[in-house]
Write a structure and sequence with these properties.
By secondary structure, the chain is α/β, with parallel strands linked by helices. It has helices spanning about 5-10, 20-25, 50-60, 70-75, 90-105, 125, 130-140, 145-150, 150-160, 170, 175-190, 200-215, 250-260, 265-270, 280-290, 295-310, 310-325, 330-335, 340-345, 355-360, 365-370, 380-385, and strands spanning about 15, 30-35, 65-70, 120, 190-195, 220-225, 235, 240, 350-355, 365, 390-395, 395, 405, 415-420, 425-430. About 45% of the residues lie in helices and about 15% in strands. Helix 13 (about 250-260) packs antiparallel against helix 16 and helix 14 (about 265-270) runs parallel beside helix 16 (about 295-310). The termini are far apart.
Length: about 425
């Protein structure tokens, strides 16, 4: 079996690894953790890199621990951020934790009887009873302020370039994260912490604390921060984060995000965000290079990630939905769409509000598409286009402009899709 470090190396997922890490993993089954801030009740694709690291870790026979930062989420991590974050109450944190665990269960095996079954822990559970005085006496004295000030994440915020400075609350973050590592080392025999390269300072504070307080040895491994080939921020769209929860990002939009990445990004992402093996990835890259217009990498990437995060059914529905806008899909495919997917597919398409009463009474197609919704500027233009076969309603060709339409034509009891020519769509919404 390929070693964990080798697996991550060919996937381009190692930025820095502490000396001795590989030897530790070769010696015995090792527990490693990744911290996730429960600032929302869903992960977004920015979290997926560290989640995939845990997934590969478990596949390599080791034990993954996902740490939900309930305590640290109440504070906020200053790393590479310019301002403090909003603080959360306990009820919200617990709700977010449960939701995150459900999502993680799609990537990690929590249920197995195997010794390397995944675990979920929350640092709030060991921090909530810890008094401030006890903490600064037991933990604070082992790490000097000089040591903490030397970290890049702190230096950046305290530099003359930063206008906001840094609160004591945030300054203490690395000490709290360091204590998490110490607690997991002492209670779960956890010897490795992983994360993004912006976490290196916080993680090494943990290894230092383990050395000084427990006279033990622990390790750190961080992956590069994911970027886009054009320099833009990964995982952000115009409408914000790409979430794993369908309530915030529909499976269709999720699928579209991966389908639309650039060739350079697709080659990088298929290594990071899927479990496809090296030989198959190399073969896919070769196929793609020979025929880039077929977008082989993007299609396979979108399939793998959508199936993993959502389901095979959701992936197939997303492919079918994509065909409605960009292909020759039938009216049957259109009728199958649920309301959320329909609105996702036709986001950005011109919309018209129409009165439901008009449809209930029966209305001629030509009146509906000129007088009630300005799909056509004039009836003459519409007649011409109907005669040439260029008008469709809900993907069915309109044969007669005087056809009487009723509310039975509505999709999901509310929508009517008008199409003129091949590419011009209009969504009529009956209210």
């Amino acid at each position: 079996m390929i070693s964990f470090i080798e697996e991550l190396s060919w996937r381009g997922m190692i930025h820095t690894v502490m000396p001795g890490t590989e030897e530790q993993l070769a010696k015995e089954m090792t527990a490693a953790y990744v911290g996730i801030d429960p600032t929302a009740d869903s992960l977004h694709i920015g979290h997926l890199v560290s989640v995939m690291m845990l997934r590969h870790f478990q596949h390599a026979g080791h034990k993954p621990i996902a740490l939900v930062g309930g305590a640290t989420g109440m504070i906020g991590d200053p790393s590479m951020k310019s301002a403090e974050r909003n603080l959360l109450d306990e009820k919200t944190l617990r709700h977010n934790q449960e939701a995150i665990k459900k999502q993680l269960a799609k990537f990690l095996d929590f249920e197995s009887d195997a010794p390397n079954a995944a675990e979920l822990v929350n640092n709030y559970d060991w921090m909530k009873e810890y008094s401030f005085l006890d903490f600064i006496r037991d933990i604070g004295k082992h790490i000097t302020v000089n040591y903490m000030m030397a970290k890049d994440s702190v230096k950046k915020r305290l530099s003359s370039e930063s206008s906001v400075g840094m609160s004591f609350t945030e300054f203490s973050y690395q000490l709290l994260q360091g204590y998490d590592f110490l607690w997991l080392y002492q209670n779960k025999n956890c010897k490795l912490q992983m994360g993004g390269s912006d976490q290196w300072g916080n993680i090494t504070t943990g290894t230092e604390l383990i050395r000084r307080k427990a006279d033990g040895e622990a390790f750190a491994l961080v992956c590069p921060l994911i970027t886009k080939a054009d320099g833009g921020k990964f995982g952000k769209t115009e409408s914000g984060n790409v979430w794993l929860d369908r309530r915030y990002t529909s499976p269709y939009k999720f699928y579209q995000f991966w389908l639309n990445v650039s060739d350079a990004d697709a080659e990088k992402y298929i290594k990071i965000f899927t479990s496809i093996n090296k030989t198959e990835v190399e073969s896919l890259v070769k196929e793609h290079t020979e025929a880039p217009h077929l977008r082989i990498l993007q299609k396979r990437l979108a399939e793998e990630v959508t199936v993993m995060v959502h389901s095979r059914e959701d992936y197939e529905a997303a492919v079918e939905a994509s065909g409605i806008l960009f292909g020759n899909a039938t009216s049957e495919a259109l009728k199958k769409l649920d309301e959320d997917t329909l609105l996702s597919v036709f986001e950005g398409v011109p919309q018209f509000k129409i009165s439901r009463d008009i449809l209930s009474q029966g209305v001629k197609a030509i009146d509906l598409l000129t007088d009630n919704a300005a799909v056509f500027p004039s009836k003459g233009e519409m007649r011409k286009m109907v005669q040439s076969g260029g008008v469709s309603l809900n993907k069915e060709k309109l044969e007669n402009q005087d056809e009487l339409l009723s509310d039975s034509i509505l999709l999901n009891g509310k929508y009517l899709l008008a199409q003129k020519g091949k590419k011009n769509y209009f969504l009529l919404i009956a209210e």
